[in-house]
Amino acid sequence: xxxxxxxxxxxxxxxxxxxxxxxxxxxxxxxxxxxxxxxxxxxxxxxxxxxxxxxxxxxxxxxxxxxxxxxxxxxxxxxxxxxxxxxxxxxxxxxxxxxxxxxxxxxxxxxxxxxxxxxxxxxxxxxxxxxxxxxxxxxxxxxxxxxxxxxxxxxxxxxxxxxxxxxxxxxxxxxxxxxxxxxxxxxxxxxxxxxxxxxxxxxxxxxxxxxxxxxxxxxxxxxxxxxxxxxxxxxxxxxxxxxxxxxxxxxxxxxxxxxxxxxxxxxxxxxxxxxxxxxxxxxxxxxxxxxxxxxxxxxxxxxxxxxxxxxxxxxxxxxxxxxxxxxxxxxxxxxxxxxxxxxx
Length: 344
Known about the structure:
Elements: H1 7-20, H2 27-84, H3 89-97, E1 106-118, H4 121-125, H5 130-150, E2 154-159, E3 162-167, H6 175-202, E4 211-226, E5 231-236, H7 238-248, E6 255-257, H8 259-265, E7 271-273, E8 277-279, E9 282-286, E10 289-291, E11 304-309, E12 312-317, H9 323-342
Parallel strand pairs: 4-6
Antiparallel strand pairs: 1-3, 1-4, 2-3, 4-5, 6-10, 7-10, 8-9, 11-12
């Protein structure tokens, strides 16, 4: 039953009104009744004041609790954002949405696996100061990560200059679409590297990075590996090792993929067959394919014009140039051609 805080006051006021309207009461009786009513109302006022003070105190306590909860919520949000940097966005979303728990469990799936590294990384960077190396490597990994997330890849790990990415878990668009997305990602990465090398040369780095990429499609074990106290969401299996081996035989600035991947993407990407190789842990001969026309204008992606040769390097990203910039670039090329002719 709800309690009306002012019911008693109303009853006293109604009783007082009834008394004062009674013509039979004498002045003395009215004064006596007034004294009784005043005493009762005074008691009620004291009770009401206590209730108001109690309400104010409770409100202050609730406000303090709400403030504390808000501060803790902000701390947890900041911590969650920091932790997200250590996980692939897809894995982070699964864990925090409750779709996957932190238990040692794996499953077998057909994935497309991407490996990349920098050719001669140690010798290329041996003369760099640690600060310059850190800046250069972070710039490279940041740009590659942006492209990977754009294409929906799950970033597995960075191993120094090496990058491991896979498609098909935790979200899959289908085995073929996953493979196509992976190869298109790899092509965009190599194209972006041309831009990055130009920037690094302008910054004074004499030996900018050249990347090699290996891609394979096959069944892998994917999930949480490790211990109950420390685990890693990753992939293992012979098909993962094959992707690493394909990267090892790849030419700088190239993309080498397995026959399994090639069969899935051949309608989207042109590639040339290479000599079969043997890989430890895989009984069959592996027939690699090298992606063709990564940079040439006649390739399926026509946004780039690129040429590198001894003493010469040019690169145009037409998608990032409006008509005004293209006109300015054409005039600059005309000036360059005139200087070359004058130098003959």
